[in-house]
Every structure is written in C-alpha cells, then in structure tokens.
Amino acid sequence: MALSGEMKYGVYCAELIPSSPSNRTFLLLHGLGGSLQFWTAVAPALGAFERTLAIDVPGLGRSDGPRGPVTLDSVADAILTFCREVEAKNCTIVAHSLGGLIGLSVAARDPDLCRRLILVDGTPVTAIMMLRNPLRAVKAPMLAMTIVAQFLGGLVPLRPRTARLIARSKVLRALALWAFVAKPTRLDAAVTADALSYTGGARMVINALRQSGQVDLLAMLDAARVPVDLVRGDHDNMNTAADFAIVREHADVRRELVIPDCRHWPLIEAPQTLTHFILSEE
Fold first, then answer.
1. Do 52 and 43 form a contact (C-beta atoms < 8 A)?
2. CA separation for the pair 282, 280 (Å, rounded)
3. Is 192 inside any structural domain?
4. Which residues have CB under 8 Å from 201's CB, separation 6+?
5. The domain that contains 270 carries what CATH number?
6. Which of 10, 93, 221, 246 has the highest CB neighbour count under 10 A?
7. 188 and 23 in contact (C-beta within 8 Å)?
8. Contact 235, 202 (CB under 8 A)
9. Structural domains in the chain (count)
10. pTM to 2 decimals?
11. How many CB atoms lie within 10 A of CB 220?
C-alpha cells in the first residue's frame, strides 16, 4: 500500500502516471515533519486520472535539504527546480498543514507553474499569530497545546517498524495522535503505519518553529494570485471557521470543504472524501 518512490534531482518522489495522461499535474506537499507517505490513501486515486507527484519536502523524509540556509524561500526554490527538471506543468498544488506555506510560496514565485492551490488544513492564521505573540496562548490554551504537540511530534523520527507498532495499537494511537486526528482508534492501521514511516526531522522542525513567528500568512495569500480551495476537519483547532473567514478576504477562494469527525489529518482520516473533492475541482 505504501507509495514507491525514487530520488529525482535531490527530491524523493513518488510519481503516478495514468494510462491516458493530460497536460495537468497534481503536486502533493505534506506538512511539517511528514513525508510523501502521508498521501498513501490519496495519491493512487489521483494518479488514475492525472500525473501525480507526491514528494518528500526538501529537508524532510528522504529528500536532500535545500542548498544554503533552510528557509521557506529556499525550500520553495528547491521544489521549483525539481518541477522544472521533471517538466511538471499546469499544476494543482495540494498542500497539507504547514506545507500550505510552501505551496503559497511556490505559487507566488512561479504563477505559470501553479493553476490552482488546494490547502488542506493549511491556513493556520490564528496559530501563526500566536507564534508571533505567545501571550495569546493565555486566551486559547487548547490551540497552544495543539501547536506544541504538532511541533513535538515533528521532532520525533519514526521509521516503519516503530510506525507499525503505533498503528497497530489503539492505545498508542490515542496517546500519540490525539492532536492530529479526531478518533484515533478508528484509523486504518495499514494507512496509518505507512503515513508515519519516515517522519520527523529536528533540523527542519526547529527552523520552521523559529521562522513561523515571522511569517506573514496574509501577505502570502495576497501574493499567490491563483484560485484557492480550502479544506479542514471540523475538529481541527489550528484551522477554524474564523481562520477561513480571514482567508476569504485575502485569497481567491473558490470552494470550501469541512469534513465531519475529522481533525488535522483528513488525508488519513477521510481520504475518500478528500480525494473526491480534489478530483471534482471546477
């Protein structure tokens, strides 16, 4: 079930090509501390219709790190270089969690590459404001706890054996994944094991934490002049209805999807619902 990948131009990539490909491409970007395996339950269905590239974001998973300092711009530049080398064109970028910041940067830096941007729990406006002003945590302790859990989870390196151990135990799933999924005990064990494999990356996570407080997400939304679709789990503390309302004022939002009984990982909790939404784009 796990996606099979290979190294291409310094980026570890799983490429799926349909029998009758068009000139469109789905480019899948995972979130902080993740890997392309997060798309295990989504990418094959997309790849049946369009060329699909699921990548380990440079510096995470099995991809090389960007040259020089690790910044949002350097990661975006590494992805753009990869896309040019593999001739990825007319892309719908589907970006999860903090991968949304990378997706926005890629779209803004090369408007000809990106035709559409789908942000999956990738608009943490309030969370980023909290990182810029930690005193906000007093008024929103649950959000603060979720942010801490997200970053701590990204620090811990997991490999297939440990990932399978967590995935097969309902108790371990509940303890380890409470901040990410609404109902950990209902997860598909095989999909969860694949998703958690090759996760974690202390260098990138620490850099992301350091830089997140400096990110102007609203300016990034303004700069990415492409149609945007928004997806969130209805229980996600980091992407709320209030965040969506703010995003609408700064982006060309075309469609929205709120997935019930879901938190921060719709691509694992509700992959069929997410896949259907992606494929039914206007």
1. yes
2. 6
3. yes
4. 33, 59, 60, 61, 154, 157
5. 3.40.50.1820
6. 93
7. no
8. no
9. 1
10. 0.94
11. 19
Strand 252-259, strand 227-233: pairing: parallel
Asked whether residue 63 is domain-assigned, the answer is yes
3-class secondary-structure state, position 76 = helix
Q: DSSP secondary-structure letter at 261?
A: T
Asked if residue 191 is part of any domain, the answer here is yes
The per-residue pLDDT for range 96-154, each reduced to its tens digit, is: 998 999 999 999 999 889 999 999 999 998 888 887 777 777 788 888 888 777 777 77
CA 40 – CA 38 distance, rounded (Å)? 6
20: domain range? 6-279
66 three-class SS: coil
Return the structure tokens found at 87: 């001739």
Amino acid at 65: G
Residue 1 domain-assigned (yes or no): no
* Tens of pLDDT, residue by residue, the chain (282 residues): 689 999 999 999 999 999 887 888 999 999 988 899 999 999 999 999 999 999 999 988 889 988 877 888 899 999 999 999 999 989 999 999 989 999 999 999 998 899 999 999 999 988 888 877 777 777 888 888 887 777 777 777 888 999 999 999 999 999 989 989 999 989 999 999 999 988 877 677 777 777 777 788 899 999 988 999 999 999 999 999 999 999 999 999 999 999 999 999 999 999 999 999 999 975
Long-range contacts of 2-6 (CB under 8 A, 24+ apart): 2/37, 2/40, 2/194, 2/197, 3/36, 3/37, 3/39, 3/40, 3/43, 3/44, 3/54, 3/194, 5/36, 5/54, 5/56, 5/62
Tokens 């921060």 locate to 264
What count of Cα atoms within 13 Å lies in the side-chain half-sphere of residue 172? 12
CA–CA gap between residue 205 and residue 157 (Å, rounded):
11
